[in-house]
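Notes from hallway chat w/ T.B., transcribed later so I don't forget. T.B. wanted the structure written out for a chain they're using in a teaching module, and asked if we could keep both sequence and structure tokens in one place. Agreed to drop them here.
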Amino acid sequence: MREQATQARVFIIDDEPPIIELARLYLEREGYRVEGFGTAAGGLSRINASSPDLVILDLMLPDGDGFEICRQVRAHSDVPILVLTARADDVDKIVGLELGADDYMTKPFNPRELVARVKAILRRRSTGEADSSEVRVGPLTVDLSRHEARLQERLLQLRSKEFALLAAFARAPGIVLTRERLLDKVWGYDYAGETRTVDVHVNHVREKLAGSSVAIETIRGTGYKLVLRDALQEETAAPDTAPQSGI
């Protein structure tokens, strides 16, 4: 892990110097190269000039909000973004995820947990890019080496976590994946019961698959699975050869 860390640059955008210094202290101990910025303008300018490996972004900044930075960065880059929010409710978290953030933490935070999350994000990203295989499910093709997904010939516009989720489903078509398992496979650790983020990202992926025969089906109280609607229709139309289940 240290070898990976020494290759990674982390930008921290936060208007509280103690927060930047605390994060810098713990991240640099792990070998990460850290740059801190106290304003939205300064951080965004630096991101545009020199692409980092990961951005830690406060949502409340003196010259703008982190939501706008997230929106602007996502317009041209899929760099991982970990957002920080001082609010304990879900509003900031969900909006941040909808704008393309990969993860979130609520202030005050444990710096060791911050390091763990940074490691998990970069590890998952590295693993996904290193996998050169291609997965096909009906008209869906997921190219893990190119980080691309297509329906027939149409390229799907997917954010980083959306692609990782779709890849996880495509590797196990028809298999129910629990929210906890998806958190582990895609985010790399346990969210301590906060599975709402999975639902938000699954809904985004569903929107990208709309109109195709590929669908993500909800298994109430358990999780989700990838299915082919054509296959489901064939099963429905096929003669009954087994005892009725009563459903």
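Follow-up for T.B.: The first helix runs from residue 2 to 5. Might be a good example for the class.
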